[in-house]
Amino acid sequence: MATKQIPYGMTDFKTIRTANYYYVDKTRYIAEVERSARFFFLIRPRRFGKSLFLNVMRWYYDINRKDRFEELFGDLYIGSHPTPERGQYLVLDFNFAGVNPDPEQLLKSFNDHCATRFREFAYFYERFFNPGFREELESRENADEKLNYMIGEAKRLSLSIYLFIDEYDNFTNAILANMGETHYKALTHGTGFFRYFFNKLKEGATGDGPIKRMLITGVSPVTMDDVTSGFNIGANMTTDSHFNGIIGFSEAEVREMLAYYKKETGFEDSVDDLIRIMKPWYDNYCFSKECLDEPMYNSDMVLYFLSKYLGRYAPPENMIDNNIRTDYNKLRHLIRLDKRFGSNASIINEIVNNGETTAVIKDAFPAEDLTKPDNFKSLLYYFGLLSMKGVSRGRTLLGVPNLTVREQIYTYLVEAYGRAGWFELEMDYLGQLVANMAYDGDWKPVFEYFSSELERQSAIREFIEGEAHVKGFLLAYLGLARTYIIYPEYEANKGYADFYMMPDLLHQPEIAYSYIVGVKYARRDATGADIDALKAEATIQLQRYAADPKVHETKGQTELRLVTLVFKGWELAVCEATLA
After folding, report:
1. Which of 34, 70, 338, 444 is disulfide-compatible with 74, CB 3.0–4.6 A?
2. Strand partners, 39
3. Backbone φ and ψ of 518, nearest 5°
4. What angle do CA 135, 141, 146 make, to 5 degrees?
5. How far apart are the first and last CA of the chain?
6. What is the pLDDT of residues 325-359, one digit of tens each?
7. CA angle 14, 17, 20 (to 5 degrees)
8. Can you list the alpha helix ranges (DSSP code H) found in 385-462?
């Protein structure tokens, strides 16, 4: 048989199984979902595999498709472990990613999408209903009227429906981000049509209603809290340890996939080599505190990498899929960083500097409370911008999972500086300076540029107070320059404000210089002796950091230089470099 194709971007289970695509078997979770909750709510980041899993579930439970069970599921886990409810449901599914969020088009688009789904439902299941059902359903004008009629007819006939909603909060998030809370509340509060639609769903799912099961996915609990007052018939299983691996790929699954393609194609790199390349970029998502040793890879990122790698047996030139950047760009308006650089922007700054923060993860919170610190951190977690790392003083310890996400965090911080009117650098010019630093060893102009802009842009001066803020500027901007991969000191657990500018030798093997930068800060009234003491302290810490095995493993043949920066207020008092 020909080598299996990579199902990058695919959500159609039947095509994957019948057209020779590679499928990572997640069917063992079908029984887990069935046992856990009749009304199952799952939040995962964008592009993580949610839509494919819902499609798998539809094929498994659809009464019209039960005769294809052996063909599609026979050699999978569920094929030899079927559940009693296999092929027992009429299936109704929605994907609200297809709804136009333009306020002028929203209601019509929502009704049109639902009308299409009801039309398909009636076409597939007409034989289970009384004569005239299809025509009567078509005649109902709005989505809620169609839903109400369908529920009533199915209830009279004692039919069982499995309802799937994918991307339930897609258009509401867009409304909230782009139009604000007034438009958003018009949908989700009071007599808003989306709230009314969910009320009808709830009616059909309680008592002897025909909706016996629901599976709803999205990227945050915000809309669910607003439209259903807590969705008290559903179970939010997002952080349940049984479902940490339901979406995404475990490392074992990635290794098995890589081993298959190595055997089929004979590429030279070892599986371990490819894991070393992929892991820093795509791994370390953890959705349950009980599963800290079972992190997940973003499946879309893994498939993106493989689709590029197998074309020329080399890693992609850009390790981040542009579709991922586009999705994070859509979310950035929900990351509310006010113009005063208030608490939420300070949280982003804390994450950049420390690599972690603590929070109480909230299962539900309304849109109006998004800016409360624990809610804001919870939102970052649900979006995949933070991941669980442990517990500290009874609070969940959250950290940036990988380099792909770190780039987005840097972008949010840089945008916050600009939105506050405090500080902006010319990125093209900075990129050229960093290239000179990498290829020619001309490192000093980079930091002199930072210093000159700190002095020139007076709005930032009142904000600077401590090395953490200075370091935040450096990390965010240098992290977006892309010649180096920036590893702050917290990656090496050194406990001081240094960062390693690791050369991206995978994509730019000609880089000749690597750097470890030590940042110290002195108040504006510091004496010369104070500056000398900070300089001496930085020298000791830099030498200690330079001895870290990670540095020696990754610097290649580059010349490693140790750069000491001591800021006196916003002035750069020391800017020196030595060889490691």
Report:
1. 70
2. 214
3. -105, 130
4. 65
5. 54
6. 777 776 666 665 555 555 677 788 888 888 889 99
7. 130
8. 403-419, 427-440, 444-456
